[in-house]
Amino acid sequence: MSENIILVKDLTVNLDGRIVLEEVNFRVDDPSLIIVVGPNGAGKTTLLKTLLGLIKPLKGEVRVLGLDPFSKGNMVRGMISYVPQKDKIAYEVPLKVGEVVLMGIVLKRKPPRYISKEDVERAKKALAHLGLENKWGSFFNELSGGQQRRVLIARALASNPAILLLDEVFSGLDFESQEKLLNILKDLKGEKKTIILVEHELEPVIEIADKILVLNRRVCAYGDSSSILSEDMLRPIYPQLKVIERDGRCTFILGDKHA
Fold this sequence. Notes:
The chain is an alpha/beta fold. It has a domain at 6-88 and 161-253: Rossmann fold (3-Layer(aba) Sandwich), CATH 3.40.50. The chain has helices at residues 44-51, 73-79, 97-106, 117-129, 145-157, 175-190, 225-228, 231-234, and strands at residues 6-15, 18-28, 33-37, 59-64, 80-83, 163-167, 194-198, 211-216, 218-223, 242-246, 249-253. Strands 5-6-7-3-8-9 form a six-stranded mixed beta sheet, sandwiched between helices. A three-stranded antiparallel beta sheet has the order 2-1-4, with helices on one face. The protein has a two-stranded antiparallel ribbon with strand order 10-11. The chain starts with 5 loop residues before the first strand and ends in a 6-residue tail after the last strand.
């Protein structure tokens, strides 16, 4: 293609007098699912927020779909959807699921933010994509944790973004919810969306990854799983690394304690 989907060149970010990212370089040329892993404090969430234009770097170049997210922030955020670790939804407010999903559409617009019949149809379609079409009228705060996570992804998908940024969406989910979410990501890959997935562990998402970015303030490794998944590559970054071999397949437990 003529331009990168994402280009990050010599990126350095300073937060509160501390270098959080230093000389970070990577690029995404084609629609891909990329897993970002790294120890606590490695700068993973900071990287996502920088791609969104929410954090301005000390130096370096960032391009998202050919645009500078700092000078063209509204345009970039109109083409990206972001599901953070902790959402700002006030759980004590009795919002219905449909209202939460519609936020993904109307909050990308300038006021006045009217909701059209087409908006409702798009929101319902996104919810159906996540297998929760029967929860449209349910209260968000009464859903299980796994269902809430899927609703937030439906909200992110409702605006039909080109890029989806997901920050630890598998964290705390039971096995059944993880399997459902994994199948949803497989479907999205088939739709040629670019997904950047920050995760604490490589399992269970490693099987659907196109590339892995290992981050520890700097880029320690970036490539497909065959080039990244080795004890020699991961042990210096994760001293508590465990390698479990079963049926000829190695599982890498990174062993970084989650804050």
